[in-house]
Specification:
The protein has about 180 residues and is mainly α. The chain has helices at about 5-35, 40-45, 50-65, 75-90, 95-115, 120-130, 135-150, 155-175. Helix 2 packs across helix 3 and helix 6 packs antiparallel against helix 7 (about 135-150). The radius of gyration is 22 Å and the shape is elongated.
Length: about 180
């Protein structure tokens, strides 16, 4: 083999490797976008860098895979569903108390399923791995609950928080298929 042919072969191999690397990166991005949905865009917006955002989401996925998450037993699912119905009924007479109770029920279901009860941002990050389409609503409900604590949430805001909590609650219970819910 002549040095010229060898050089052309090396250049061809390098170009092929670069092409494969770009293809792999594009596939990785496509998979993460598909898995995380709006959460991918949120991570990208927060970091301002695709690579950093994808690293965060990949690490988040690995963290959740190490958790001992499990579905609820049928009796626990029934008990939680009943508690939610009572909580929703309470909204008419005590919207603020119902939102606080709704938040507590979501946390209790998460804990029963095996999610660690760290700070809110860690809980939301963990939820985003398996429930990326409703984590936005969970964050929105949490924001409303904080505004309510400061006396800044209207009854309509509280109603919306209950709807948001219910969406995640039903997914965690396994009585609702994961879905995309718009946040105002």
């Amino acid at each position: 083999m002549t040095p010229r042919i060898f050089s052309i072969l090396i250049i061809f191999i390098l170009i092929a490797c670069v092409g494969l690397w770009f293809y792999w990166q594009k596939q990785k991005t496509k998979k993460l976008r598909s898995r995380f949905g709006p959460e991918y865009d949120r991570a990208l917006e927060q970091t301002g860098d695709r690579s950093k955002a994808e690293t965060i989401l990949t690490e988040r996925k690995k963290r959740v895979e190490r958790l001992d998450l499990h579905p609820l037993a049928p009796t626990a699912r029934e008990r939680f569903a009943k508690e939610w119905r009572v909580c929703q009924a309470r909204f008419v007479d005590d919207p603020r108390g119902a939102v606080k109770e709704g938040d507590h029920l979501v946390m209790e279901v998460m804990e029963t399923r095996g999610y660690p009860m760290a700070d809110f941002e860690q809980r939301a990050a963990d939820i985003s791995v398996d429930h990326p389409r409703v984590v936005e609503t969970y964050r929105a409900a949490h924001e409303i609950a904080i505004r309510e604590q400061n006396g800044e949430a209207s009854t309509e805001d509280l109603r919306q928080a209950m709807v948001y909590y219910r969406t995640l609650f039903e997914e965690l219970l396994g009585i609702r298929e994961p879905m995309l819910t718009e946040v105002k």
